[in-house]
Amino acid sequence: MELWNSLEHRFGQSNGAKLYHQQKEISKSVQENSSVAGYFTTLKRLWDELNSPSTHLGCICDCVCDGKNKVTKFLGDQRVIQFLIGLNDVYGQARGNILMMNPLPSLDHAYSLLLQDESQREVYMSPQYPSDGASFMAGTQTKFQQRNNNQN
After folding, report:
1. Given this model, what pLDDT does residue 128 score?
2. What's the pTM value of the predicted model, to 2 decimals?
3. DSSP category for residue 12
4. Can you tell me the distance from the alpha carbon of 88 to that of 32, in angstroms, rounded to the nearest whole number?
5. Label partner for 58 (CA 20 to 30 A): which of 52, 105, 123, 145?
6. pLDDT-based confidence at 129, cuts 50/70/90?
C-alpha cells in the first residue's frame, strides 16, 4: 500500500507546465486541411490527455442541487464551442445553426451535424462526370460534325 501511495504521490500529481501545454495545444487547434473527422479526433485526443491526470476529481456524492449535472453540461458546452471555433469558415452556416440551438447540443451531436454538412458539400462539389471525359466527348462530337460537313 505504501508503494502505491508513493507512486501516486510522485506521478499522480498534476503538473502545471503539462496542463499549460495541453491547454495551449487545445486553444490553437484549428481544422486547416483536415477533414471534420480528423480535426475532431485531434481535439478529442487532446481533451483525453487533459482529463487523464484529473481522473480522481470525479464526484461520488449524492447531490440534491443538481450541481454535478450543471458542471458536466457546462464543460460539455465549452468543448462544443472549442470545436466550433477551430472549424474552417466554410462551415460558418452550420456553426451558426448549432450555436442557435437551445440548449447547445452534445459534442457528439454537433460532430454528427458537421459530418453531414461535410458530406453534403462533397456531393455538391464533386462533378457527376469527370471533366476529362466530358471534354473528350465534346472534342469527339466536334470532329464528327466537321467530318460530316466536309463529306456533304
Report:
1. 62
2. 0.69
3. S
4. 6
5. 105
6. low
Question: Rounded to an integer, what distance in angstroms lies between the CA atom of residue 106 and that of residue 132?
Answer: 44
Please state, in angstroms and rounded to a whole number, the distance separating the CA atoms of residues 31 and 87: 5
ω into residue 53 within 30 of 0, thus cis?
no
CA-to-CA distance for 81 and 141, rounded, in angstroms?
54
pLDDT of amino acid 93: 96
Smallest CA-to-CA distance from 53 within 21, 98, 94 is with 21
- Mean pLDDT throughout 5-28? 80
C-alpha cell at 148: 460530316
Can you tell me the distance from the alpha carbon of 11 to that of 113, in angstroms, rounded to the nearest whole number? 39
Cβ count near 26 (within 10 Å): 17
Which residue is listed with cell 502505491?
4
Say which residue the cell 481535439 belongs to.
43
Residue 28 has pLDDT above 80, yes or no: yes
| pLDDT beyond 60 at 141 | no
* pLDDT of 151 over the 60 cut: no
- How many Cβ atoms from other residues are within 10 Å of residue 127's Cβ? 8
Number of H helices, E strands in the chain: 7, 0
Amino acid at residue number 148: N
